[in-house]
Amino acid sequence: MSFYHPSMYDASRPVGSWWEDDAPLLPVGVDAGPAADASCDVAIIGGGYTGLSCALHLARDHKVDVRVLESGPLGWGASGRNGGFCTFPPSHTSFEGLIKNFGLEEARRFIDSQRDAVALVRSLAESEGIDLQPQGDSTMIVAHAPNRWAGLQSEAKAMERLGVPHELHRAGAFAERFYDSAEQFGGLQVKVGFGLQPLRFARGLAAAAARHGARLHGHSKVLGWTRQDGHHLLATSGGTIRARRVVVATNGFLEDKLLPSLANQVMPVISNIIVTRPLTDSELRSQRWQTEIPCSNTRELLFYYRLLPDKRFLFGARGDTTGKPEDAAVMRAGMERRLGEVFPGWKDVETTHYWRGFVCMTRSSFPTIGQTEEDPTVWYGLGYHGNGVSAAPWTGRTLARLIAGAQTLASVPVQLTTKPAAIPFPQLKRWYLKLALAYYRFADL
Ligand SMILES: Cc1cc2nc3c(=O)[nH]c(=O)nc-3n(C[C@H](O)[C@H](O)[C@H](O)COP(=O)(O)OP(=O)(O)OC[C@H]3O[C@@H](n4cnc5c(N)ncnc54)[C@H](O)[C@@H]3O)c2cc1C
């Protein structure tokens, strides 16, 4: 049984995102169509950033015979529908907490790897000719209440120690340079990330992987998985793929039956996005909005928002523990109300798009990369804590190098290779989620 309402897993359903309206279609031939009976060296389950980047790097850099099996159209999952914040790190642990928990050296190794992940996105765009529609030259963390300013100052100090370029802006100066709002009490500019069009990135990665020889099969959900003569047999409705090695790159879509041992380590959480019609210049002036930098705030249940190239405003929030269509309608209405409260000048601006998807959490608060204990020919990389735009392609490349023997697990930062503890009493997962949401709502007051 799936954790959320079945409609959340229905890959025949369009996502309904603004990105789908804006992105060019995949070039003909990139998607080889539903998988028929075939063999390959590496089969990847999941056609998002992790799977596509793994396929691209295996095919291009290591000349490996690789196929990707994806339930929906390529990039149908979180990769084609996220907020497009190319930021870091993929963890809920603060910069300060990283140093405290791991020491400066290990914290820095992790942070450097994830700065490399942001650089990888830029370099893939350049080397593979992907039009990402980049915006801004940093990302912003905004204090949503006066008592959050001190936390930003501590984070800035930790960033200093970790060599992360940044700048603090007090509320007045912030309003002069970026925007003003009912929930703006100063901001911390992290001079590493940027904004991008996520579906263009996913489709660009797919086109590049296919160009370098990977075979990509959209509409090819893996329905069954057996072993025979040292090979994996992945059954889809169109045929069975026989492979020597398998990569699980399903992130928040991982269903228990596919790989129960891994499913017990992750928790999918729903993230929601609304997008407005293009804002007029006078509407933008009403909030003094003058930045393309993607912003998120200090709420535990964070709001994230950015102005898109055609002046639409994207506003995102986590929430809803069921995934039912009727609860989606409640979520949308609640987000429209909150958008108007945070930015009173835009309270009557209509939204044109609403969609949602899964971010994937682990108990360790870090992504997990490795091989399963039961079978070392099964690899996985997932759990990006809502920051996978850079971390997932980087993980895909790391998996490719590990599989090709060009890198060892010991060289991957320890935060990513320490297996997260299994979630105790997994049948209580929904209650844990409800409790966590209630706690975070209280903490955000
Ligand atoms: C609304 C939203 C906003 C987000 N905003 C941001 C952001 O601004 N910045 C950021 O860094 N991150 C963001 N994220 C997170 C980010 O999108 C993800 O971390 C990242 O895309 C993960 O990539 P992935 O390839 O691992 O997973 P996905 O892109 O989810 O791909 C997994 C794929 O596996 C497929 N699959 C699952 N089971 C099977 C099966 N049995 N057979 C075949 N295929 C299968 C699914 O269909 C899916 O397409 C956001 C996520 C959401 C949902």
Explain how this protein is built.
- The strands form three sheets. Strands 1, 2, 8, 9, 10, 11, 17 and 18 form an eight-stranded mixed sheet that branches. An eight-stranded mixed sheet has the order 5-6-4-13-14-15-12-16, with helices on both faces.
- The chain has two domains: 6-82 and 199-266 and 365-443, FAD/NAD(P)-binding domain, CATH 3.50.50; 134-195 and 268-362, 2-Layer Sandwich (D-Amino Acid Oxidase, Chain A, domain 2), CATH 3.30.9.10.
- A hairpin with a 5-residue loop joins strand 14 and strand 15.
- 34% of the residues lie in helices and 22% in strands.
- It is globular.
- It has 445 residues and is of the alpha/beta class.
- The structure holds flavin-adenine dinucleotide.
- The site of flavin-adenine dinucleotide has 44 residues, from helix 2, strand 12, strand 16 and helix 10.
What descriptors fit this protein?
D-Amino Acid Oxidase, Chain A, domain 2, binds flavin-adenine dinucleotide, 22% strand, 445 residues, 8-stranded mixed sheet, 2 domains, FAD/NAD(P)-binding domain, alpha/beta
Number of domains: 2
State the fourth-level CATH superfamily of the largest domain. FAD/NAD(P)-binding domain
Spans where pLDDT lies below 50 across 5 or more residues: none
Supply the CATH architecture of the largest domain: 3-Layer(bba) Sandwich
CATH topology category name of the largest domain: FAD/NAD(P)-binding domain
Global structural class: alpha/beta
Number of helices: 12
- CATH C-level label of the largest domain: Alpha Beta
- Series of H and E elements: HEHEEHEHEHEEHEEEEHEHEEEHEEEHHH
Query: What is the C-alpha radius of gyration, as a whole number of Å?
Result: 21 Å
